[in-house]
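User: Hi! I'm working on a homework problem where we have to compare a predicted structure to a textbook description. Could you give me the structure for the chain below?
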Amino acid sequence: MSSLATPAAALPVLQPKDFASDQEIRWCPRCGDYSILAQMKKVLPTLGIPKEKFVFVSGIGCSSRFPYYVDTYGFHSIHGRAPAIASGVKISRPDLQVWVITGDGDALSIGGNHLMHAIRRNLDFKIILFNNQIYGLTKGQYSPTSPVGQKTKSTPYGSLANPVSPMCFALGAEATFVARSVDVDIKHLTGVLERAAKHKGTAFVEVYQDCNVFNSNAFLYASDKEVKADNVVYVEHGKPLIFGKDKKKGIRLHGMTPEVVELGKGITEDDLLFHDEKAADPSLAFLLARFRHPEFPEPMGVLRDIDKPCYDQAVNAQIEAAIAKQGEGDLDKLFESGDTWVVE
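Assistant: Happy to help. Predicted structure tokens:
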């Protein structure tokens, strides 16, 4: 079985343009998907992996056109089933690097069951969830992540449903890598995608993505340079949770209850909550994932990054052990064994 990585000397030097396909990109002007695609094409050449070893698998939705726009192998699959198809690809071809591209509607409505089981199994692939809090491809209905009160074509008087938190969903399924970024925060998004690519196991990344046609500026509070410093906390392993334009605000715990405090009034950095992305217990990561604007600054960065056995490796090890013990299988012999019937 071939190794995923090829010695650097044997690889051609790849550039982002080498991952640009010949397909016309059919997203609306100013869609946040363009930025995510651009940052992805920056990251792929840095991984030391041949182009033919990448596979992008998507479901249905605007984001799911992604495989057409990267010059790699890929599947534009069916609604919500991208994690299931990607699981089959990774288990049968563990030498490939597999990316799942999905949206909030595709992943968390019809695809919720498949997403949950892919995450809990910890297959070695990457899941990028574009969250725009709306159904864009089908023209503006509310989605599983739409906030309460949001008026859409399917909720003209405002949504009454409690929204799903993608990161809480992933952490509840015991994801080994959970992160969040914003489409227009180019440097940060690139860094998060790089870390996801190098993680061994299921890497789940939520990207706040602007649908400027049906839900424009939904995440302006987290993307606009004038206001985001007070609305976002960038988490870094081993560092205190500090935010604000002047870096004078922080988060501390009162028991297990978080509170926003101001530094310098009898409160020092040592009093704050320090981020630990390596904690085996996901409780603090889950606490951070529940932060909601405007009550709390929303976390950006890697909330969790731990090591656990990968399902695809375990399956292939189990198969190899069975072959070593019993020899290669015989399909015809299997079909003709046990209880059989002859229909005349």
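For your comparison, note the following. The chain has a mean pLDDT of 94. The first strand starts at residue 54 and ends at 58. Good luck with the assignment!
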